[in-house]
Design a protein that fits this description.
This protein is mostly helical. 46% of the residues lie in helices and 2% in strands. It is built from 9 helices and 2 strands; from the N terminus they run ααααααββααα. Strands 1-2 form a two-stranded antiparallel ribbon. Strand 1 (149-150) and strand 2 (156-157) form a beta hairpin.
Length: 224
């Protein structure tokens, strides 16, 4: 049996965690996060998810606050489909064909935005579902993988690995892509072939074929 001092050290200090995440949600993030300003949607997910797991979200936010959070998420929705990571690149009426690639939706932010809306019990009625699914299809590459964003001249930007593939599979599932018209849906067979090709002799999954198996891509591949 553990000594009392050791047992105390291994107990989860729930109240301290709740205070920390409520601070992040309702005031300002610690200064160390300043460089991650463009990743606000991702940070919001970890804050909301942590409070939800601690069973402290619904009891510590008002309905007015919940609505404000939901409205902010929708303010990050991109007119061409998907969600931005934050609104800092949104230029409004000044947007045009020459500068639109500076304000793209990205696949990770889109996944986190949908997850945040689910955590906040939103009905997702304001999502541009068809636009998002069409945008997602444009991100898929010849080998079945997904890029991160649509860049200059409509080129797919970002890596080819299982993490973006997981995001794509989750977005498709949340938006009911399996019920979409064929021209809106992704090439699911190509995605599955990529997952299968990324499995290694060790039994896990890598970020792509002929790479080393690791924990994160294994989780992403299995969940995807």
């Amino acid at each position: 049996m553990l000594e009392p001092s050791i047992r105390m050290a291994t107990e989860l200090n729930k109240s301290a965690h709740v205070r920390y995440f409520l601070r992040c949600l309702k005031t300002h993030l610690p200064t160390a996060y300043t460089s991650n300003d463009s990743q606000r949607m991702t940070l919001a997910f970890f804050v909301l998810c942590a409070l939800d797991l601690l069973d402290a979200l619904q009891t510590n936010i008002t309905e007015s606050e919940r609505v404000d959070y939901v409205n902010w998420i929708y303010s990050c929705q991109h007119p061409d489909g998907g969600f931005r990571g934050f609104t800092g690149g949104h230029v409004g009426a000044a947007g045009n064909a020459e500068n639109r690639h500076w304000d793209p939706a990205n696949i990770a932010a889109t996944y986190f935005a949908l997850a945040n809306l689910a955590i906040l019990d939103d009905d997702m009625g304001r999502i541009n579902r068809r636009g998002c699914l069409n945008w997602l299809k444009r991100l898929q590459q010849d080998d079945g993988t997904f890029g991160e964003a649509i860049g200059l001249n409509g080129e797919v930007q970002g890596g080819r690995d299982t993490r973006f593939c997981y995001c794509a599979a989750a977005i498709r599932w949340i938006l009911g892509g399996d019920r979409a018209e064929e021209e809106e849906d992704i090439d699911l067979d190509a995605l599955l072939r990529f997952f299968e090709a990324s499995q290694t002799f060790e039994g896990g999954f890598a970020n792509g074929p002929f790479h080393e198996a690791q924990g994160t891509p294994t989780v992403a591949s299995a969940a995807g």
